[in-house]
Amino acid sequence: MIDLIIFFLWLLNLAIFARVIMSWVIPSGQSSNPLVNIIHEITEPILSPIRKIVPRVGMFDFTPMIAVVTLGIIISVLGG
Q1: What does the pLDDT read at residue 74?
Q2: Rounded to the nearest 10 degrees, how much is the dihedral formed by the CA atoms of 73, 59, 29, 15?
Q3: 64 with 14: CB under 8 angstroms?
Q4: Distance CA 30, CA 53 (A)
């Protein structure tokens, strides 16, 4: 059971990385690609609460980095 949770968290990490890469290529909200929309829908529930606490610094959004580090800590605690 723990392995399944760890696997899910790694997939979530991967989705966040994919979203970061896509944000450099595709302007926010301007994609009709279903894959981009799915990744956005998967990651937004995790990133949105963090974004409310940590504002952007200029053009930089540190929210994905905080989410990835937090997920990494959770994975480590679970034994991954």
Answers
A1: 96
A2: -20
A3: no
A4: 25
pLDDT band at 29 (very low <50, low <70, confident <90, very high): low
Going by C-beta distance under 8 Å and a sequence separation of 6 or more, which residues neighbour residue 40? 19
Cβ(71)–Cβ(20) below 8 Å: no
Residue with tokens 């990133």: 47
**Quick one: which of 64, 73, 69 has its CA closest to 16?**
64
Please state, in angstroms and as integers, the Cα–Cα distance from residue 7 to each residue in 21, 48, 55, 71, 79, following that order: 21, 22, 29, 11, 12
Mean pLDDT across 39-48: 95
Q: What angle do CA 9, 38, 22 make, to 5 degrees?
A: 85
Q: Are 47 and 67 in contact (CB under 8 A)?
A: yes
Residue type, 2: I
Q: Which two tokens stand for residue 35?
A: 């894959």
